[in-house]
Amino acid sequence: MTDHDLAPEVEETAEAIASMEVRGAATIAGAAADALAAQARATDAEDADEFRATMRAAGRRLHETRPTAVSLPNTLRYVLRRMDGADAATVRENVLAAAAEFDDRLDAAQDDLGQIGANRLQDGDTIMTHCHSTDALSCVEAALDQGKEISAIVKETRPRNQGHITAEALREMGVPVTLIVDSAARRYLDEVDHVLVGADSIGADGSVINKIGTSGLAVNARERGVPIMTAAQTIKLHPETLAGHTVEIEMRDEAEVIAEDAREAIGEVTVENPAFDVTPPRYMDAIVTESGQFPPESIVTLMRELFGEGATEPWAET
Ligand code: RUB
Hints:
single chain, alpha/beta, Four Helix Bundle (Hemerythrin (Met), subunit A), Rossmann fold, 7-stranded mixed β-sheet, 3-stranded antiparallel β-sheet, binds ribulose-1,5-diphosphate
């Protein structure tokens, strides 16, 4: 618990992220930046240090919501590192400027990587998608803008069916969609030209941490000879993995897997619900970022360039 006054927007955003009303790594990042801006507007501390301490408390509340998408701590790093100022008004101004700049960069990065990812797609391609990734969809949108015709086979993505969100977004773009259950993916890979997924985190070794089922899809795609790319802005790069840390995989409620009455009817069973998995770099053809396309194993060069100073935790100081 904290004795700092948190803005209602921070509490609402934290709850929305934890309950997945706000979900997907890029969307979580944008919501966290907006919540920090709301906190900066609401904080009435007159002392600069007190102002910074309240901002850090808001950062801690947001940070504790979901563990896997590194876009969340990377957002907190971006904003909370820019809290210079001798008085509270200057700190507020700097935080608001940082949050606005972050939002702009988030949108621009998605547009820029979309252009690059679109270049990997050919006119007439059928793609296969997993989960719902706004970075991945940006590549499809840019390919359509380039005049290419794209159709999609969309995996429903149990247990939360984020594939339905992807199907709806693709239909809004005018893309023909075939929806399949997850276990049908290998059967349909023969009809697919490119697999396209997003990421919640990318490790220094080029491994891709994304919605559970991505790794199985990648292995099957490799076996079928279908190229697979990850569309991921650089805020998905996980700086702590440069120092050997692994990425925590979120375990979610067992009730997402099976309803209580159905579970009781089966009898005593253990239910596990990991939300994400790790795809080793050898099963991924390319990671597409706003800074260009990378073979997964070389992403570490970009990470060193961006996070050379290492992974600080500016929200952690009380
Ligand atoms: C979402 C998910 C998405 C990534 C990338 O998981 O795995 O593929 O977050 O999304 P959840 P984006 O639904 O559990 O949050 O490209 O929009 O950042």
